[in-house]
């Protein structure tokens, strides 16, 4: 069956090979590059770039080699509203957002997909390293490049119209294939950091948008240890840049209170939590888990995977995801995603809204094992 496929082409090697594979499979493929900034010079350039003018040119050259039509879509207004402004607002609220995850959710698999379907396309293909098996999201065979975490926010309906041609191969195999196909991006370095912060200075970017808001840095007992220029420039788990001078022991950011503009710090041990609450749960690979269920969760991109009990409950604000870790985790930041897995398969996700440490955190593993919980 021949499909009309829109291939999202970022200008990198992955999206180029993904588009080539879909075209070679006999589908009717059109390449599209997303212009995400009204002023591209304000975004990263060169090897550290993402979605830049150079990337647009690289995507066009790849489309020419593949032999498919190519267009540029201006998504700058949507990107600024859904990703950049959200990034600032989340930091201002004391959270630590993941802008790449937000971009996948709101731009690549919402705005773009909606437009593609309206134009008569059957699917959108991307170069993400992830598989789709029986309609569910599954980790890539390349564990080091797996991107299932940053796609864990997608709905089942979005996945229905998504194609991920690279999930069955490693990054090295992708580069080798690009070279065989004569694609000039075969050796192009991967993009890094946040594309819309040109100089990589996240603190400066946030200060420009939010402004300086001096406040106290305190310990767990409320004793003021120093001051800061704005709680929005900190993240849970942060150690460097606290400005505490000669503190005898390392201090880490434990929590951020944006209303009172306070940053609480303490020893690394105090970062340990075993209870997590998530809001806006999305279930793409399972019906909502309304009973405590043994799963695994990932708490940040390329982060450690933890065994846990997971279930959805109802609150006054709506459904929320409750997670009890078998072993405490450190540096879990509100604003990040918690993605729920059954083995390598994504079941669902939620945005972390709160964390806690139960009194029996050190024995959490034994407690979980002793309780009767349903297995996936």
TrEMBL record:
Assigned keywords, A-Z: ATP-binding, Cytoplasm, Disulfide bond, Nucleotide-binding, RNA-binding, Transferase, tRNA processing, tRNA-binding
All copies of domain tRNA-specific 2-thiouridylase MnmA-like C-terminal, residue ranges: 274-352
Pfam families: tRNA_Me_trans, tRNA_Me_trans_C, tRNA_Me_trans_M
GO cellular component, one term: cytoplasm
Domain of life: Bacteria
Compartment(s) where it occurs, according to its Swiss-Prot or TrEMBL record: Cytoplasm
GO molecular function term, any single one: tRNA binding
Principal localisation: cytoplasm
RNA-binding among keywords: yes
GO BP terms, alphabetized: tRNA wobble position uridine thiolation
Catalytic reaction equation(s): S-sulfanyl-L-cysteinyl-[protein] + uridine(34) in tRNA + AH2 + ATP = 2-thiouridine(34) in tRNA + L-cysteinyl-[protein] + A + AMP + diphosphate + H(+)
Residues reported to bind ATP: 8-15, 34, 127
Function: Catalyzes the 2-thiolation of uridine at the wobble position (U34) of tRNA, leading to the formation of s(2)U34.
Family named by the database record: Belongs to the MnmA/TRMU family.
Protein name: tRNA-specific 2-thiouridylase MnmA
Species for this entry: Nocardiopsis kunsanensis
Lineage, opening ranks: Bacteria, Bacillati, Actinomycetota, Actinomycetes, Streptosporangiales
Name of the coding gene: mnmA
